[in-house]
Write a structure and sequence with these properties.
4-stranded antiparallel β-sheet; alpha+beta; 10-stranded mixed β-sheet; Glutaredoxin; 22% helix; 16 strands; 31% strand; Nuclear Transport Factor 2, Chain: A; 2 domains
Length: 325
Amino acid sequence: MNSFFCSDATRQLGEEVIGSATDYQTYILVECPLPWMTNAFSSKWIPHNLQILVEEVNKTKLPVRFLLIANDYTHKAEHTTLLIYQKQIGLSSGYIKHEFKLSNIDQVASVVKQWLWGKTPDSEIETHITRDILICTHGSYDKCCARYGNPFYFYAQDTITNLSLENVRVWRSSHFGGHRFAPTAIDLPEGRYYGQLNENSFQVILTRTGDIQNLKSVYRGWGILHPALQVLERDLMLSQGWNWFNYKVAGKILEQSLDNNTLLGELTFATKSDSIYTYQARLIKDHSKTLNLKSSCNATQSSVVVKYAVADLCLVAENVLTLSK
């Protein structure tokens, strides 16, 4: 029996988690009872029309991520929750949530089709929920998500209850990448990814209090940005403090070398007081942190995971928007 656990190996190697968030335009989250198969949308509760739709969308290579979600009430709920998170355009604080309450999972495919065709389905509802935290517990995909994700899901639920955070939901989720950082999470609607979570770091993420430097070891990056830019955003976040979470951000890669070892990145952010700052920096392959490792428990061979370092950071523009009185 294979006794290799990718999450344990990653911790032993000291791999940095930053730069491992995935950039999707749309998340489509479908509530579905467990158990889930390795290929989540082949699970027994998934209707055929939804399987076909997921296959068709995946073939188009659209930046859309389908995930299954569940909580402790899913198996006895008399309705199916469908969440669609759509990335904001331009200066952004993340994603916009659209929530649908459907009488059963068979209705999901038709609602998603309407959405993808640009129509507004009429089953959308308003709720008091302002944050959905997904924790990967997809053990049939990678055993680290069962070993570390499952216990952490229960801890996360208890913590949210104990802190009386009635506007926060926590969900089990199917695989969204980075299981070598288990337990791993996505915090929506922002779309920030976290990994190697523990009790202390999770409380810091939930409450945004305490030393922001505690995020450095668990912050995988902001999923609205290119992976190399995630390092720059992390550094700015750590220097700006908790106010950073109230800012809107946009980033782009201006230049990149043919070997991808050097990139020129730009990050613009708007503060609450409508000041807009633009920073540029060189993002250089960090040979000391770039590792050769097995990225999952089932990997048969190692692969190179490139890490970037920020160099020559400079402020290139500063504007204050003044509203005429």
